[in-house]
Write a structure and sequence with these properties.
With about 150 residues, the chain is an all-alpha fold. Helix content is about 85%, strand content about 5%. A two-stranded antiparallel sheet has the order 1-2.
């Protein structure tokens, strides 16, 4: 009886923490997904099914990885020749690379239809989010000394 009670006392906290983590992950995915679907609705992006949206996001993640690699490579090359990248130049380069990625995905997928203006606005939104995340990571790494 004592052994069963000890086992239950060990399992209950693990189960509670696991359920809380699962709830947090599911909530994060749902909020992210509906936030992006809301952006799709605001921009007038048409899609055939939920599967096409998931495929679009999968391709977007791959394209974002490629854009990040290309961006870092260009930044390294330009820093070696003595050119300093300013925030505006970084932002413009990121917008152009994101636009190319979105345009390519749009051309490859017939189940998602994006107008040219929506592609540009979507690239601006993604680039703004990327720059703000990068800036917040850079700021958190260097705490202020006040």
């Amino acid at each position: 009886m004592k052994q069963i009670r000890e086992t239950i006392e060990k399992i209950i906290p693990i189960a509670i923490v696991s359920l809380l983590l699962l709830f947090a992950v599911i909530t994060s995915i749902i909020l992210f997904f509906f936030f992006n679907v809301g952006i799709f609705e605001l921009l007038g992006i048409e899609y055939d099914s939920w599967t096409s949206i998931l495929l679009f996001y999968g391709l977007s993640l791959i394209a974002d990885a490629v854009v990040t690699i290309v961006f870092m490579y260009i930044k390294i090359i330009c820093s070696k020749v003595g050119h300093n990248f300013r925030r505006l130049h970084e932002f413009i380069l990121r917008v152009v690379l994101n636009f190319i990625a979105i345009y390519t995905i749009d051309e490859c997928m017939s189940s998602v239809r994006i107008s040219f203006v929506a592609e540009v606005v979507f690239a601006l939104i993604i680039s703004t989010i990327d720059i703000s995340i990068t800036a917040s990571k850079r700021d958190s790494g260097n705490p202020r000394s006040e």
